[in-house]
Amino acid sequence: MEAIKWIGLAAIVAITFIGLLYVSVPEEPAGSTNVCTTVTETITVTRIVTVTSITTPSAGYASIIDSSGRCGTLEKPILKIVEKKPVNEENGYVVTILYSEQTSVPCYRHVIENSYLLKRYPPIVEISLKLESTSDVCIECVGVVETLIKIGSRDNPIPEGTEIKVNGLVVVV
Known about the structure:
The chain is mainly beta. It has a domain at 54-172. 13% of the residues lie in helices and 40% in strands. The strands form two sheets. The protein has a five-stranded mixed β-sheet, with no helix packed on it. Strands 2-7-4-3 form a four-stranded antiparallel β-sheet, with no helix packed on it.
């Protein structure tokens, strides 16, 4: 009798265990595989990427009109717009700027080392000038080299708001 009691108790435990397994495992639809699906919150982030292109001076963006030295002193280099001519009503401008810097003697002139246009909004025209010795007889005095630079043309006008950088100094058209 004792054996029947233990067999009955074992059967009840087994049936209970199987029932618990059935309740804890969800029923899968016919033809599905055992895949765990979770729902997550999705956040979409949109980033605007601006692609820049570089245009060299051969495209006509910057050219030196005049560069010469004289005796004088400057506290710091100067960059300013001296002329801003509109091209074809609101299409942009042809700009003339003046860049001046202190030198040890006035017997130098500026040459364009490199220049480029970053086409973005607002556009940036970046110009690097370097000093080149002139073949003139040099007067011994502290000098200032002044250079007029034309930026833009009728075919390639400079838009309003363009930043012009010359040797680190900036003006805005």
